[in-house]
Amino acid sequence: MPGWAAPDAGTPTPSAVTLSEISVVSAPPSTILTPGTPNASAGYVGGVTGIGGSLLTVDSASAGIISGAALNARPVTRPGEVLEEVPGLIVTQHSGEGKANQYFLRGFNLDHGTDIAISVDGMPVNMRTHAHGQGYADLNFLIPELVGAVEFHKGPYFVRDGDFASAGSVRIDYLDTVAKNVALTAIGSFGYQRALSIACVPLGEGNLLVAGEAQVYDGPWTVPDALRKINGVARYSQGTALDGFSITGMAYAARWTATNQIPERAVVSGQLSRYGTINPTDGGDTSRFSLSGRFSATDDTGITRASAYVIRYQMNLFNDFTYFLNDPVNGDQFHQLDQRVLGGGEVLHIFQGDLFGRPLEVEVGAQTRTDSIRVGLFNTTNRQYRSGVLDDRVLESSGALNLDTRVRWTEWLRTSVGVRADGYYADVRSDTPANSGKATDGIVNPKLGVVLGPWFDTEFYVNYGGGFHSNDARGVTATVDPASPLFNITRSPFLVPSTGYEVGLRNRSIAGLETSLALFRLDFTSENIFQGDTGTTEPSRPTRRFGVEWTNRYAVTPFLSLEGDLTITNARFSSYDPVGNRVPEAPTTIASAGVTFGESLGWFGSLRLRYFGPRPLIEDNTIRSRPTALVNGRIGYNFETGVSVSLDMLNLTNIRSDQITYAYVSRLPGEPAEGLIDRVFHPVEPTAVRLTIAGRF
User: Fold this and answer.
1) DSSP letter for each residue of 10-23
2) Of 76, 324, 561, 632, which sees the most CB atoms within 10 A?
């Protein structure tokens, strides 16, 4: 079952096989370890992952593990898009290439990460109390060729998932060692250039892996993106997946100019081209430096795992979404500043034993995180400071305890009963004294799962769980509008609960084919969401989403695989308001299909279709987005010398469609002072080609 296989592209590594056997409760794991995942990438060489890494995915119809080979078989425009290998997940962009992606899953516009928890090597990617948006998850530092495996869950059913994980979670593990060293160079349309090298050497009783990446890209925009990115990883690892450790350092920096979404009326009138911009000085810069460590050990009682990290992060972001609505003379550009140091860690132990003679597993874990943040919002013109809106210091800490008990009662019945407790503390020191303050909150969520079967190679799953996302701490303590201190505002709740339900099945009756079907529902309570773009809170109503997911992975042969996914979701506000009950930007239909072929030598290739269905853009559904159907392709050849050559063709059909579409009020020069509501969109880039040459040695 390609895409849901062991971390390596070839025969599963001993550590991966061992890892799948530590569970005494889960019968056949919820993923299949197949030895035939095609490797359709010039740069991915595989290797060993798992030292202190991911545990088995928890049983549900919508959870799984993606191999690094499957992830790298996708021809993509930007690094974060490789996560579209997660069924039903859309990863797109509405701004410059250095900005965090926009995510869509299960009827959610997840913005830049509000309800999808993403981690890399045990480090959180989501940034809370962020200058641009709560849960901001910038994955532009990701090096896809280093990914060994990706574990994903959907829904709030799993005790290891806390903040931001209501729609789902994605855990990305880098390789600890690579099978061969790699030197790669790529060139392509619109000024695309990339260089990558990965080397691994024995050192003492372990291995040292070093990787470096540099990239430039202009894009098709009238004002070039001028992306400049450098990236590095160094890791020392020792031992095995069950008894070992790793220490990893990462460094990333980027700067860019952004072509943000533009109003449709300006393109229709001929004022702008599809690739034009209203404000040519939008853009930004960012950096991320991290040091992390992971450890695992086994004893007579089970397995212990621990991890810790410290991250230094900064971002300057300049955006102008409404043009001349708020300031007809100087324009509406603003600068968002985020500087922080965050640290934390996790420890867990899985006790293995029996209950009344039945196999038993008890997982006990604890997590902690602390962010020390400076976060600011300033009015600017052409990136020059005009006035301040807010400049705050925030200390935010959280801790969590989780317990999960998994029992195999019979050959056809196993259960998981768990609970997770989270506590939060924030100290906000605002330059508007009325908005300073301290806040605490806590939440306890049950997690339940039942697995029935297998009967006729079919298992049935029932899952229930509570989840939450935290709100920006500034919105929790604020009492006045920072832009207009005479006006009071409503405080946000610190933690916003959600409740999820899911029933599903997974069938493996046809050799090589795994098909799964899941019916899900997710309810969110009423919430006030802090708007980082304005520095104020905006209330929303309770929502309910229910839908169906159908996922298929078919290993036709060891060198040929097929896949196809379909998600249909109904998203509505669950309380009445005459303005309408549609949730803006909630996708109804997401679908994908793909074919991958290739062996260790000779030809390889991949073809992917991604369908992003139309969406309501305002509550009464009178303005809607158009659908987007993108086709990307790849063809390549592996030579006996170790050289690989591949050609990616992005937007193969050259459709004129949108990466993302919104509807809101904005104003261009000469328009009424109150502005006009209109679709604003970020277009799909036209057909582009990228040639990659890699040497493996």
Assistant:
1) SSPPHHHHHHHTS-
2) 561
